[in-house]
Amino acid sequence: MFKKFRNAALLTAALATGSLALASPAAAAPPVAPYNGACGSGYGVVNHAGIGSKGTVFVTYNNSTGYNCAVTVRANPGAAVEMVVSIKRTSDPASAAKMDSGYYTTYAGPVYLHAADQCVDWMGRITGSPGGDRGTNCG
What we know:
Elements: H1 2-17, E1 44-51, E2 55-62, E3 67-74, E4 81-89, E5 98-104, E6 107-114, E7 120-126, E8 129-136
Antiparallel strand pairs: 1-2, 2-3, 3-6, 4-5, 4-7, 7-8
């Protein structure tokens, strides 16, 4: 019984002091690798997904042009490894994807796609490990 009271007291104290961080469902995990600016000026990061501990795939958007850009970035650059990045409108067939693949030391991409007001599917892969999402960034 004392254990319940102690746990409740600790939780109350943590909430009161702000020392307990509560995650919201919409909060994404921080990227494993930082965005490198490869898409160029005018593009801001709108989404990202981790690729295990190997890196991160980023989706950026340029409000002025309506173009999305995707890039896969390694967390620990080194010897060239197989990397992939792709992006397509969700409504398009897989064959319409804009893709870059090869053996890279730091990042794959950037690849660009005009998709204003349309959902996109995007994916990155580093040595066989995938990351990405489907039907996102629709506005």
